[in-house]
Design a protein that fits this description.
The chain is an all-alpha fold. It has helices spanning 8-17, 21-34, 39-51, 55-68, 73-85, 89-102, 107-117. Mean pLDDT is 92; it is low at 1-5.
């Protein structure tokens, strides 16, 4: 039988699907020690903090994700949305500009920029 630690990201996803966010955060932190160079794992942890409304930790994990993969469109999009929420226009615009260079057809960029104009 295969244990939980053979497929740690799968177990982390299951915790999130079940709404066990606090347990998912703790499990993710433990995984991070061993898998600190896995941008997918770090992005998943950022997403859990995002769901919980923890902007500080979300940004921290998004920055770690982007340090490993600066072209991660999902991480840039989440970071832009988070900066929009925090009403940090300059940082949100910066994320949108980076995202536009990578994915010029991304329609969500225009949506974020439109919302920023209304702030």
């Amino acid at each position: 039988m295969v244990g939980v630690f053979s497929f740690p990201k799968r177990h982390l996803r299951k915790l999130v699907q079940n709404g066990d966010y606090l347990e998912a955060i703790e499990f993710g932190k433990n995984l991070e020690k061993k898998h600190s160079n896995d941008p997918d794992l770090l992005f998943m942890i950022a997403g859990i903090y995002y769901i919980n409304g923890d902007a500080t930790n979300t940004l921290s994990y998004l920055d770690k994700t982007l340090a490993l993969n600066q072209n991660d469109t999902e991480a840039l999009l989440m970071k832009a949305n988070l900066h929009l929420y925090l009403k940090d226009k300059d940082q949100a615009v910066d994320c949108c500009e980076k995202l536009r260079k990578i994915d010029p057809q991304n329609k969500e960029i225009d949506e974020i920029l439109d919302k920023l104009e209304k702030l």
